[in-house]
Amino acid sequence: MSPNQAPSAVSAAPVSGAAGAPEPLPAVRLRELRKTFGTVTAVDGIDLDIAQGEFFAMLGPSGSGKTTVLRMIAGFELPTSGTVELAGSDVSRLAPFQRDVNTVFQDYALFPHMSVQANVEYGLRVKRVPKAQRAERAREALRTVRLEDFAQRRPAQLSGGQRQRVALARALVNRPKVLLLDEPLGALDLKLRQAMQVELKQIQREVGITFVFVTHDQDEALTMSDRIAVFDQGRIEQVGTPVEVYERPASAFVAGFVGTSNLLGGRGAEAVLGRSGVYSIRPEKIRVDTDLAAPAGTDEVSATGTVTDVVYAGATVRYEVALDVGGQLAAVRQNEGSPAFELAGSRVRLVWRSEHSFRVPDASDHR
Amino acid sequence: MTTTASAPRHGVSSFFHRNPRLRLTALLSAPMLWLGLAYLGALAALFVTAFWHTDTFTGQVVRDWTLDNFRTLVTDEVYRTITLRTLGIAALVTVIDAVIAFPMAFAMAKFCSPRTQRILVIAVMTPLWASYLVKAYSWRIMLSGDGVISWLGTPFGVDSPGYGVFATVLTLSYLWLPYMILPIYAGLERLPESLVDASGDLGARPWRTFRSVILPLTFPAIVAGSIFTFSLSLGDYIAVRIVGGTSQMLGNVVYDNIGAANNLPFAATVATVPVVIMLVYLAAVRRTGALNNL
C-alpha cells in the first residue's frame, strides 16, 4: 500500500499540545522500511513520520509487523532495507546502545538481581553519570511513577503494575528523545490497565517525550493516542487521529479491526443506500426501531430486518439483525433498563443518518 | 461424586486420589529406602571404618577406635602433597572447563537456530556415551612421544607434555567438559532475551551487558557445573593412572590401600578427604543459589 490512502501519514501532523510549536524534524522518520526473516516478510515497506512530543500508537493484530517496526526503531533488529531516522539523523545501522531511545518491554525486563533503585540507575551508571546526580535523577523518576518508597525492593517483591512503573521509570530517567513501549499494559488485568492508561498519558504530558507504543488493543489505542497507525500484514493500512481512524476507516480491515466490523455491501448497499460498494456503519450509530412504518428523517436511511441474536454486555446490548435485502448488521444500544431480550426474533427497523455509512475501499478498488 | 460412584471398581486409584499424602509416601518409600541404606549407609560405614586399623601381621581389620589413620594423613608429607595436588588439579580443571564451556554454551543458547541447538546438545553429550577407559587411553596415545600432539607440534617446536600433572589436567578437562556446558547452557536458555535487549537499550555496550547482566544471572549455573567438574576430578583415579605418570591423586591412594597395601581403614580415611572438601564446597556455594540450578 502507498501512503496516499492516508494523507496524514506523510505530514508530521503537530497534534500534541505538549510539543508547542511544531518541530521541523519528526522525532521518528521511517522510509521504505522492510524486514524479512528468511522467507517471511514481517515488515513490507513502511513510511511513517512521528512528530516530536506525540503519543503515537501502532495498532494491529499479532503478526502484523508492529513489534518488528518498534524493534527496528530501538535497534534490536536491523532493517533488511530502508531507513530509520531519529530527529533527522540516520540510525538504521546503529546498535541499540548508540541510539537515543529507550524501551519499556512487554515483560518489563527488570534486572532481577538488582534493586528497583539500581534498575532505574542502570542507564545512568552505564553512561558514567556521577553518583549523587544519579541518585537524584532516579529518585525523581521514581517519584514520577509514584514508587519512591520502593527503591530498595527487588523486582520480585513488586506487583505487576508496580513493575510496569519501574520499567517506565528506568526508561524515562535517561530522558530519551523517544520512548518505545511494547504492549506495556498487556500483562495487567483490566482495572489496572485502565488506571495505567490514564497514568501513562498523564506522565507523557508531564515529561513531553515522544511516546511510541505498540498494542493490539483498539480501545487502548483510541483512548491514549494522538495518532494511530493501523498495521496489517507488514503494511500500514491507515494513519490518523483516533477520530479519523474510527469514523472514517480507510479500508475494510481497519473498519473491522478498530471497532466492530459492520459492513454493508453488494445488493444490500444498493437497496438501502442506493449506491454500490462496501459501507461501514458503526453499530452504536444505528437506532433500533420497533415501529416498522415510522417515516425516516430526511437525511436518514433505514432497513428492515429480523433480530437474530441479542447479546447482553452489561452497559450495552447488541442486536444482530438479518436485513430483508440481504446482509447482516449489528446495532448497539445503551442498556437503559428496558428488557433486553424481548426483541429476539422480532421484526425491527434499523435507522441511521446517511453520513454515518462510510464507504470503505473493497477488493475491487483496493490494491 | 464420580469418585464415590467408581470407588468400588477403582479402589486403589480413588483411595490415593483422596489421600495425596499417602500417595507421595507410596511413591517415595522405595527410592528413599534405597538412598538411605545404600547411599547414606555406605557413607556412614566408610566414616566408621576410617577409625579402625589393620593388624600389621595378619592383615585383618581390627575394630578398635583410633585416630592413627587421621594422624598419618595429616602429618605425613606425602599425603599433604597429594591432597594439595588433587585440590589444585580439580580447581584447575573446573576453571579450564568454565572458560571453555561458557562461550560454547553462550553461542548455543543465544546465536544458534533451534535445530542447530539440538544438534550441538547431542554433540556435546556424545562423548558421554563412549567408554571412559577408551577416552582416557586415547589421550594416553595422543600424548605419547610419537603421538598426534607431538606430531602436530613438532613444526612449531612444541613437544608432547608427556605424562604427568599437565596431562591429567588436560584429560580430566576433556572428560568433564559436557558436565559444565550443559548446566551453563540451561542457565543461559532461562535468561530472558529481553534482559539483554534492555541492557543494550539503556546504553550498555556488549561487554558491559555481559559483566552486569549475563554473568551475574548465569553465575549460579556456572557454579552448578563446577560442582560436577570439581567433585568428579576430586575422586578420579583412573585417568591419573593412565596419563598421570608418577604424580598420584587421592583416588590412587585409596585404590592402592584397598588393593596392594590391603589397608581398608586407611583407604576409608583418605576417602573422607574428598567428601569433606565437597561438603565444604557445597556449603560455600549454597548461598549463590547454585543448588537450585542442578
From TrEMBL, chain A:
GO terms for molecular function: ATP binding; ATP hydrolysis activity; transmembrane transporter activity. One of its GO terms (cellular component) is ATP-binding cassette (ABC) transporter complex. Coiled coil: none annotated. It comes from the Bacteria. It holds the Pfam family ABC_tran. Keywords: ATP-binding, Nucleotide-binding. This is Spermidine/putrescine ABC transporter ATP-binding protein. It comes from Prauserella muralis. The lineage of its organism: Bacteria, Bacillati, Actinomycetota, Actinomycetes, Pseudonocardiales.
UniProtKB/TrEMBL annotation, chain B:
It is a multi-pass membrane protein. One of its GO terms (cellular component) is plasma membrane. Pfam families: BPD_transp_1. It is found in: Cell membrane. One of its GO terms (biological process) is transmembrane transport. Keywords: Cell membrane, Membrane, Transmembrane, Transmembrane helix, Transport. The keyword Cell membrane applies. InterPro entries: MetI-like, MetI-like_sf. The keyword Transmembrane helix applies. The chain crosses the membrane at residues 24-52, 87-107, 119-142, 162-182, 213-244, 264-284. Gene3D superfamilies: MetI-like. Belongs to the binding-protein-dependent transport system permease family. CysTW subfamily. This is Spermidine/putrescine ABC transporter permease. The lineage of its organism: Bacteria, Bacillati, Actinomycetota, Actinomycetes, Pseudonocardiales.
